[in-house]
Every structure is written in C-alpha cells, then in structure tokens.
Design brief:
Layout: H1 2-24, E1 35-36, E2 39-43, E3 51-55, E4 63-64, H2 81-96, E5 101-104, E6 107-109, E7 112-113, E8 117-120, H3 135-143, H4 148-152, H5 158-169, H6 179-184
Pfam families: Alpha_kinase (PF02816)
Protein name: ALPK2 kinase
GO molecular function: ATP binding; protein serine/threonine kinase activity
Length: about 200
C-alpha cells in the first residue's frame, strides 16, 4: 500500500539522516543537523483504512526547503541555515550512494523534517526503490550549488565530477535508460495530493 511505502521511504531517509548527523555533528562550526522524524505504521483491522501512520506533530512554520517542481532547490529558502544543511544532506546522500539515491521533498519545521521522498535510479539501490522520478537525481546534479557545509564535509563539487564521470562512463552509458524512457517515469499518483501545500510557489 501507499501508506506502507511512504513509511518505508521516510524511515529509510531517516537512517541516512542519522548517518549524516554522526559525520556532521562532530565537525567544528557545523552546529545543529537536520533530523527526519520517525513515522510509525499502525494497523487498525476494524477500520475501512486498515493502515495509518502516526508521527510527532511539528509546531511552528512549515517550510519546504527543496521542492519537486523542476527547481529542486527552493531559492527563497535555500540561503537559510536549515535550507543549506538540507542541500548538503542531499549532496552527502548522493555521494554516499554513488549517485544512485537522492532524498527529495525536504520540508518541515526548523531542523525537523517530515513527509520526505526518495528518488533512485530505475533499478533502485541496494534493493530499495524510491517513490520519486529518477529525473530528480539528474536535476539535483545539474542545479546543486555547494555551500560552506558541503565544504566542511569535504564533498566534491558536482560540476567537475559530473563532467569527469561523463567521459569515464561514456562506454558504459548503453546500460543506462535513454532520455526518452526517463521522461515517461512519472511520480506516483499518490504523491499528488501533497502539492496543494506548496501553493506559495
């Protein structure tokens, strides 16, 4: 079910966020690290909708730090501390998974995030398939601008590494889906109701 998948996605992203925090927190000057709150699945056999999710209620201004409307970074929020750290988290996960996985839809209150998504390459990553289109990974690679937190973590700029990789992988590119198949991959319908939240765009 969609609910179970959403639970799985958020909790997978949460595991990456914990690893990110373990690496970033000890760094001098890094400060607070964004946290993805846990989401719990409850089973209600007597109910029409047998599965539901429960999570901590976030109180305060709910902000989208990265969006999924063609501009992977929300430029209005990108320069906030939480926004920059979210972008760095995306870059860190991208590098950790060798460009196979990206956490998307980073949103929440302050440093507490919820309702996130994950994009993976078509084949998935380590047996896990995301719930967002693969095109988000391409988009991120093209649009991400490193900030001071990326530098603190020693992340490589995607501009230069991407060009080098393209030369190196041109022989292998036959196995990648061509652009026409990528365009057909649309995010799952179940994610659409969320879009009304971002009416500010």
């Amino acid at each position: 079910s969609v609910v179970i998948q959403e639970c799985h996605v958020q909790n997978t992203a949460r595991e990456y966020a914990k690893l990110y925090a373990a690496e970033a927190e000890p760094l001098e000057g890094f400060g607070e690290v964004p946290e993805i709150i846990p989401i719990f699945l409850i089973h209600r056999p007597a109910n029409n909708i047998p599965y539901a999710t429960v999570e901590e209620e976030l109180v305060g201004e709910f902000v989208k730090y990265s969006v999924k409307d063609g501009k992977e970074v929300n430029f209005l929020r990108r320069d906030s501390e939480a926004g920059k750290k979210c972008c760095t988290f995306q870059h860190w996960v991208y590098e950790k998974t060798i460009g196979n996985l990206l956490v998307t839809d980073l949103q929440g209150v302050g440093m507490k995030l919820t309702d996130v998504g994950i994009a993976t390459l078509a084949k998935g990553y380590k047996g896990f398939k995301g719930n967002c289109s693969f095109s988000f990974i391409e988009q991120f690679r093209a649009l991400h601008q490193c900030n001071e937190y990326c530098e603190m973590l020693g992340l490589k700029s995607l501009r230069t590494t991407h060009q080098k990789q393209r030369k190196a992988t041109s022989a292998k590119s036959k196995s990648l889906p061509n652009s026409s198949t990528v365009k057909k991959m649309v995010p799952k319908k179940a994610r659409e109701p969320r879009d009304f939240v971002s009416s500010e765009h």
